[in-house]
Amino acid sequence: MLNKLKRTTKNKKAKLVGRGGTRGKTSGRGTKGQKARAGHKIRPHIRDIIKKYPKLRGRGKNINKAFVVKPAVVNLLVLEKNFNKGDVVTPSVLFTKGLITRNKGVLPQVKILATGEITKALEIFDCIASGVAKTKIEKAGGKVNGIA
After folding, report:
1. In-domain check, residue 128
2. pLDDT at 148
3. Strands 88-89 and 143-144, how do they pair?
4. In total, how many domains does the chain have?
5. CATH code, domain carrying 121
6. In a domain? residue 101
7. Domain that holds residue 112
8. Residue 18: CB partners within 8 Å, gap ≥ 6?
9. Residue 29, pLDDT above cutoff 90
């Protein structure tokens, strides 16, 4: 009877490769290469880009930042236009007139340079003046008291 037939030989099982586990051969790791190895670690692509940059030791990410904060520059020409005879010039007055800006919320030091001519007598406080600028201001009848 057809429903009582039995096979004379057993089913063959798949050949096992003796490398442990039931996955056989490549054990689910694909084929050869770094990814197939145990404990593989592949460096991120961005790391290779970073490694190619030239390095200067000791300054870190702030390599392009200056150690000394440079003063805000104001020329004599600007003082001539924006002030009247006998006015007092300080960093706070320059800031209120919009001639200098704050640096990280702090008023910067101000340096007066000799570009242009000045005819008005001005009193200058808390500012650094170049040598030529100082002589021009004093010729016009003004005073430079430097940093108070």
Report:
1. yes
2. 43
3. unpaired
4. 1
5. 3.100.10.10
6. yes
7. 72-144
8. none
9. no
